[in-house]
Amino acid sequence: MTIQEGELLWTPREAFAKSSQLASFMDWLRVHRQLDFTDYAALWQWSVDCLEDFWAAVWEYFEIESSTPHECVLKERTMPGAEWFPGARVNFAKHMLRKGRRGWPAIHHRSEIRPSATLNWEDLRDQVATLAEAMRRMGIRPGDRIVSTLPNTPEAVIALLATTAIGAVWSACSPDFGARSILDRFQQIEPRLLFAVDGYRFGGKDFDRRTDLARLVEGLPTLEHLVFLPDLDPAAPRPTLRPEPAVRLWSEVMAEQPLRYEDFRYEDVEFSHPLWILYSSGTTGLPKAITHSHGGMTLETHKVIAFHANQTPDSCLFFYTTTGWMMFNFMVMGLCQGGRIVLYDGNPLAPHVERLWQLAAEHRVTMFGASPTFVQMMIKAGVRPAKKYDLSALEGVLLGGSPATPETFAWFYREVKRDLWVTSQSGGTDVCSAFVGASPTLPVYAGEIQTRLLGVDAHALSDEGEPLTDGVGELVIRKPMPSMPLYFWGDADNRRYRDSYFDVYPGQWRHGDFFKVNQRGGCYIYGRSDSTLNRAGVRIGTAEIYRIVENVEGVQDSLVLNLDLPGGSFFMPMFVVPKPGFMLDEAMQSRITQALRMQGSPRHVPDRYVAIAAVPYTLTGKKLEVPVRKILLGAAPDKVASRDAMMNPASLQFFVDFAGEVRRMVEAGEQQR
């Protein structure tokens, strides 16, 4: 099936659009603010022009609870350093748990290890209260850092909410991270308590992490407490560690003094009090310890979960993730409207490639989430969910992690459901949300992100700093958002923070993505701007090349780079993973070249094709374009790429070896000018 970028694929039914959370907010604005917006575009424009009025309306509409009044909405529109809702005292966990209905399910959990389980709202709230009070008895105080290597289980959700309920600061890595990679993150923040697991199972294979746990404890001298969850082996003994923190089993902590939710006291903290610490991928040096605030994330959560994901008390949200990705935090955020979430711990293709669709049918998931990489696996495996599963409850699909192609969109309409709100989003760890994403009131066009989110003044800027329409430029946020980081933990003078986002356009956030907004407000992400291909002055996003190449017969995956070489020359190789049964022979190279010329331009055609066994990916499914480029230009691999943060670390070795060939080629003068 041939699909053109920008082709109309779906228009929301009138009843769906009018019953959406977004439409309800527009009705509320009409009644309470005398603001009548004809469409989403007008609402978005007001939300960024009248920034303070918009966020004040969000605060009132969702009845955000503060134990003290705020002085104003925003002191100054400065970045970095915007001060939101000074004087307010809030608690994130309180807002995530307040809407759940007694007797109704909150979390469905599936795992390769445990039997299926469901946690009701009253049990979730009581367990959060019990753990939070136990942490207080351990001496944990507001501002203390609490870290976790728990897998994607209810215990991880409970631990996050209990930590934030008492004003402590949460941070997590998934158990599949190596010890060195975890220490690179946790050593920066000096934690007092660690939640840890004995191991995990993935694809039917067991991974014992107790040796790594000993290394973590040894490398974290500030650690005073360890709460140990024997998940892989319930009979696993309590670990003996040196130096020895106070070690307790999860079951012991939870059984010691059970507490009812109604008897628990939340710790209300300043709006700008740190909530959690997320990390950049760590592919290019020490990961940045990105610190978000209680108030900022409470507001952003309500906005994005209700208006842009359209979650209600009757919704069921699923996104395949690990605890080391911000999408785990997003799943916890999904509780704020009182609906259900589904957690899955394990290989999404085990015991069969349709596992996640089986979960969606079993739990009547209304919003299904995964990465475009997962969808490509479905396409290649010939999976046809609609033929086998009852997906009648499914209303929407949320794609995140990397740019989604038109073919990805089309697959859902062909193989899952015709009446389906297929959405793609982009934003990420930096704001633990999205800049551009979904609206339930707008149509869906192939390969196109529906819109800029409310309160996000996102633009594509030219090199001169001018906004572009239908032109590709840098993704820049021109006004502050409450969920922008407070700071990077340990970055005392904010130098690293400023250099990361504000070095090119002072006072404006440059995100580092290649971006386009079209006439109707639809958005496109064309890959990282720091991996942008610059061919004779013409900038090309890698995502548009991948979209063309990976639809050529016989191509399974690809990686393209542009190497700027001494003397103003350049070299653009393309690395191709052929499908089983195919070779990167002259015929395949000719097919790729022809496709790139016809669908792109002569500048899209690489200087050389090279066959490889695998493209290097991060654990969240992003291609390591920048680290590989640096390796080919002579950088030491361990300086630019953290193998523990990779899905397939062995794949780097090819490029380490190929760097020698690049060096010989440069010496022989085989590059272009």
From TrEMBL:
It is an enzyme of class 6 (ligase). Pfam families: ACAS_N, AMP-binding. Its EC number is 6.2.1.16. Residues 40-94 form the Acetyl-coenzyme A synthetase N-terminal domain. One of its GO terms (molecular function) is acetoacetate-CoA ligase activity. Gene3D superfamilies: 3.30.300.30, N-terminal domain of ligase-like. InterPro entries: Acac_CoA_synth (IPR005914), ACAS_N (IPR032387), AMP-bd_C_sf (IPR045851), AMP-binding_CS (IPR020845), AMP-dep_synth/lig_dom (IPR000873), ANL_N_sf (IPR042099). Keywords: ATP-binding, Ligase, Nucleotide-binding. PROSITE patterns: AMP_BINDING. One of its GO terms (biological process) is lipid metabolic process. Residues 114-481 form the AMP-dependent synthetase/ligase domain. Belongs to the ATP-dependent AMP-binding enzyme family. This is Acetoacetate--CoA ligase.
